[in-house]
């Protein structure tokens, strides 16, 4: 058991590092849990990863908020809808087959990767003439939709939140990353509530993983704030590409 904890803590450290910058730490943590602890149900492994995820993400959200201006009047209602969506997704995980949704997400990710690569100014601040009410309606919509995805499937949620803030609300990478962290905290807390009450969390693994995820998150934030938007854009492209490979593997090769 000690060996498994050490390996998972190392993975959690790198997951926290990636998550703090652009999201997508679940691309490391979830497969690692499935490989190292195959004797447990998938729901238990999924629930366990949420503890380290919420720890690192909450810390990142706090640190970003000290360096980035957050529009709390806009963000708080979106967090609530993301939380609600995640609860609905977690409930529906037994009703909807994720393998039906994954091909759609794969196509969407490929389009996003091509667009981000070709548009050099993607992720720079773009002033959008949107009223507060319009921004709120857009935010509530993608908050619930992506929150639902997090409860249902999971990997890449933070990346999708970033994309929504950039493409729909005109925020830059740094601001979008900060906002995405708070939304991701909401969806992770919703998932923890659902999985904890049904006994699907292995705390002996989750707690030490959370500590290392926190350390990784600390380093990731330092680097993101130091390097700025250009660095985050490159990192974002890498994580989206990794997400594409992950979904392609699940769809075409995993049996």
Automatic annotation (TrEMBL):
PANTHER family hit by this protein: MEMBRANE TRANSPORTER PROTEIN YFCA-RELATED (PTHR30269:SF0), TRANSMEMBRANE PROTEIN YFCA (PTHR30269)
UniProt topology in membrane: Multi-pass membrane protein
Protein name: Probable membrane transporter protein
Transmembrane domains' residue ranges: 5-28, 40-62, 74-94, 100-118, 130-146, 152-170, 182-199, 205-224, 231-249
Family that this chain belongs to: Belongs to the 4-toluene sulfonate uptake permease (TSUP) (TC 2.A.102) family.
GO cellular component: plasma membrane
Entry keywords, A to Z: Cell membrane, Membrane, Transmembrane, Transmembrane helix, Transport
Cellular compartment(s): Cell membrane
Gene source species: Pedobacter duraquae
InterPro entries the UniProt entry points to: TM_pro_TauE-like, TSUP
């Amino acid at each position: 058991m000690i060996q498994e904890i050490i390996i998972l803590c190392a993975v959690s450290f790198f997951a926290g590092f990636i998550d703090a910058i652009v999201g997508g730490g679940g691309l490391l943590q979830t497969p690692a849990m499935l490989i190292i602890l195959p004797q447990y149900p998938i729901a238990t492994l999924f629930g366990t990863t949420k503890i380290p995820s919420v720890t690192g993400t909450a810390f990142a959200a706090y640190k970003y908020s000290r360096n980035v201006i957050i529009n709390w009047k806009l963000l708080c209602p979106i967090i609530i809808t993301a939380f609600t969506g995640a609860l609905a997704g977690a409930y529906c995980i037994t009703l909807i087959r994720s393998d039906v949704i994954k091909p759609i997400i794969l196509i969407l990710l490929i389009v996003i990767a091509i667009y981000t690569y070709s548009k050099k100014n993607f992720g720079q601040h773009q002033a959008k003439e949107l009223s507060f009410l319009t921004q709120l309606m857009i935010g509530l919509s993608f908050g619930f939709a992506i929150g639902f995805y997090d409860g249902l499937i999971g990997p890449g949620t933070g990346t999708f939140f970033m994309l929504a803030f950039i493409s729909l609300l005109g925020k830059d990478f740094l601001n979008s990353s900060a906002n995405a962290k708070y939304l991701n905290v909401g969806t992770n807390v919703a998932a923890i509530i659902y999985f904890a009450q049904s006994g699907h969390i292995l705390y002996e693994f989750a707690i030490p993983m959370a500590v290392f995820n926190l350390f990784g998150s600390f380093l990731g934030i330092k680097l993101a704030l130091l390097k700025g938007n250009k660095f985050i854009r490159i990192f974002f492209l890498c994580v989206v590409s990794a997400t594409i490979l992950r979904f392609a593997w699940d769809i075409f090769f995993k049996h």
